[in-house]
């Protein structure tokens, strides 16, 4: 959130939180993986709902 909404660099985030830049990078990577997975699942759920509504409509 600090990176996207606060426009803070990884270096600034690391300094503010008292952690290394590598740790910030790892957290960002994990967060992006979760977001991608969730969005993919949501996309497939949307397709499934459309298909079900067509079949039952």
Account of the protein in words:
The chain is mainly α and 57 residues long. It has one domain (10-56). Helix content is 77%, strand content 0%. The chain is built from two helices and no strands. Helix 1 (10-17) crosses helix 2 (21-56). The chain is rod-shaped. The termini are far apart. The mean pLDDT is 89.
* Global outline: rod-shaped
Give the H and E element order. Answer: HH
Structural class: mainly alpha
Relative strand content: under 5%
Distance between the termini: 42 Å
Largest pleated sheet = none
What is the strand tally?
0
Helicity level:
over 70%
* Overall pLDDT metric: 89
Q: Based on the structure, what is the oligomeric state of the protein chains?
A: single chain
Compact summary:
By secondary structure, the protein is mainly alpha-helical. It is 77% helix and 0% strand.
Notable features of this structure?
57 residues; single chain; mainly alpha; 2 helices; 77% helix
Write the layout of secondary structure elements.
Blueprint: H1 10-17, H2 21-56
Helix pairs in contact: 1-2
């Amino acid at each position: 959130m600090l990176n996207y909404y606060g426009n803070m660099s990884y270096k600034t985030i690391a300094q503010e939180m008292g952690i290394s830049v590598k740790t910030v990078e790892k957290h960002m990577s994990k967060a992006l993986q979760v977001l991608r997975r969730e969005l993919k699942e949501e996309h497939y759920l949307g397709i499934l709902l459309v298909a079900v509504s067509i079949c039952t409509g």
